[in-house]
Amino acid sequence: GTWRANTYPGAACDVPSHLYSFSFAPKKDWTRKFAQQPEILSYFEDVTDRYDLRHRIRFGTEATSARFDEDAGEWHVTVADGTSLTADVLISGLGQLNRPFTPEIKGLAEFGGDVFHSARWNHDIDLAGRRVGVIGNGASTVQFLPPTAEVAGHLTLFQRSANWILPKPDREFSPLERRIFRNVPFAERLFRWNIYWRLEKNFFFMRRGSRLGKLIERVATKELRKIVSDDLPAEALIPDYPPGCKRILISNDYYAALLRPNVEVELSHLDHIEPGAVVTADGTRHELDVLIFGTGFRSTEFLAPMEVTGRHGADLNTAWAKGAKAHLGVAVAGFPNFFMLYGPNTNLGHNSIIFMIEAQARYITRAVRELRDDRLAWLDVRDDVMDLYNTRIQHNADGTVWVADCDSWYKNEHGVVTNNWPAFTVSYWKRMRDFRSHEFVRRART
């Protein structure tokens, strides 16, 4: 859904193309090292057709609730049109970055101009020559701000804090390179492995007190100070937290965009919105025609607003009130035969999420085979197993830079790191190859 929903100008992946793809369905003719949204969407649609999956998909169907029937060993799923579906196994593929977050700002409803979120880009609105306000400066903003600034009459970026942004080693693949990927045995596979291991070593950078992180901070700060000016002060460019605490971004044109004469960075906090203007805490009134939110997603809420009810009437959102957790990021105690892809603590700060999802899919497949072969009504991960696993996860997370003093979508309002995997991905891959039946309560079919 990410690449269907996010169509803003400049939308692209920050993981190299050959690794941001399925290992079982390689694409040997990627046009560039970091693919852009249209090519990525085309790839996933091609995989859908290659494996004849369209007839297994119900499009335009929103699941609103799911309830487990313990006696029957079945999940009853209700969709938005009121229809009820029954399944032996329920798998969530909702991910973490699917519900746009728009902050509640006093007076927003009275703005009167055009307003939209970057994940719901309104292509019907012509931004040429208009006064555009951008709220938020995360990964999406870093991509859409440069092309937007090129056409806008004036652009004001309302920024709470700066991000660490590194150069993006992007370029088009030459015709020769693409011929090699297509025709030389194992060339594409070796290139993919090379990318994987180069990214994998970057987890060292995620450790708290990392020497590499401190080196990057010194080098980047030195370069950024070269463009500091009265109009673009240091606090607009240089973060006050260590690299990696928040998502590290990559771009080759973002800083150049900030230096444009029609772009200004506003560091004062937003106070309220009036008809045709945003007013900041220092009393400045910024007159605008268009307001674009680049404020990210409700990343720590996971399955919300869908209601998921397990054994004994347990509500999943209530169980996760202080932070989402799951065994291996895929199974939750009290919710039998329910599994997740890209669940709690499986996001990455250094490698490809596709790698993690493939490991999860293999694990879930093992669980379904066990249900089938052993004629089980359901499997439910044990509470003690899930609790021990998550205790270890949080212990490992405490050793990462993510727990430093910064506001990131990696952790919830309680400061708990609910999103990221705090280790090398190869360790997750190894663990997910071992489905341990004794970690589950097993109920035989009657």
Please write out the topology:
Elements: H1 2-5, H2 37-50, E1 63-69, E2 74-79, E3 84-87, E4 90-92, E5 114-117, E6 131-135, H3 139-151, E7 154-158, E8 165-166, H4 175-183, H5 187-200, H6 211-224, H7 234-237, E9 249-250, H8 254-258, E10 263-266, E11 270-274, E12 277-280, E13 285-287, E14 290-293, E15 307-309, H9 316-319, E16 338-340, H10 353-373, E17 376-381, H11 383-397, H12 425-432, E18 440-444
Parallel strand pairs: 1-15, 4-16, 5-14, 6-7, 6-14, 7-10, 8-9
Antiparallel strand pairs: 1-2, 2-3, 11-12, 12-13, 17-18
Helix pairs in contact: 10-12
Précis, in short:
The chain is α/β, with parallel strands linked by helices and 446 residues long.
Can you characterise this structure?
There is one protein chain. The chain has 446 residues and is α/β, with parallel strands linked by helices. 28% of the residues lie in helices and 17% in strands. The protein is globular and about 75 Å long.
